[in-house]
Amino acid sequence: MPYDENHSSATGPRRSRRGLLTAAALVPTALVGWLAWQAVSGPGGSESPKGTTIPTTAGKPGDTTPPASPSPSLVAPTSTPAPSKDTSGPLAGKVVVIDPGHNPGNFRHSREINRLVDIGTNSKECDTTGTATNAGYTEAEFTLDVSHRLRKLLEKQGARVEFTHDNDRPFGPCIDERARFGNKAEADAVISVHADGSAVGNRGFHVILPALVTSGTADTSKIVGPSRDLGERIVGKFVRATGSQVSNYVGGNTGLDVRKDLGGLNLSDVPKVFIECGNMRDPKDVALLTDPGWRQKAAQGMADGISSYLGQ
To answer: 191 has which bridge partners?
Structure first.
């Protein structure tokens, strides 16, 4: 869900430890790597920002015990091999910024992410934890996984792809910083990857577009048209690649939602959209979001939409 919507449940991920290497010659290296990983990730915790509750597998009201670790197949990779790049591909010379929604460490930093920042028209929280499935698979894990897949697909077509973060910082970045990242990169397109946290029965995906905002320090007049073009292309390609339907609760069956209250859009100087890939609180959508095969299709749909927009 968008960074500045803080009404859904979330929790921090617990990472599973890798098995010990069997080759004796590699034991010292593995031990050093494991100790470094422990120092960075730290123990699991249940801290969440004000206004959120942590979902549990037991489903007991008020229970703040963190859920069991998700299956390793669901967790975003901590490292990925360098994808092959085609500098002569159809997207050569194009810059795409991918903004993975939220940060797996946000739940440990409630004070920092609740700090107010300027979004052009007013002030909102720096960030939120995002949502999660009832089993504890977090939106932040999901967005990183899909973003890695999307980056590979775009780089194979020759695009230069940059991330606003790659789980390489304790929390954030804040919503205003995420917008400035795309502006500084002079991106040809920016996509912010999310999943929603709505009621059971609310299903499907939708793409969020910037509204026309010309007040305070926000001025989206130059990006409203290009962002709509980008969003419409992503909707069409996403349906084709995933077989998913557009949202049945947002956008009037168009798959598009126009918002003027999101700092990530209000402060952008370049074409930008958000995509809510599905509802993490609906069992049928969860079955898709937690399937690595479907996540690859989701990344393909986004890549196809972006490629269509940039190649026109």
So the answer is: 98, 273
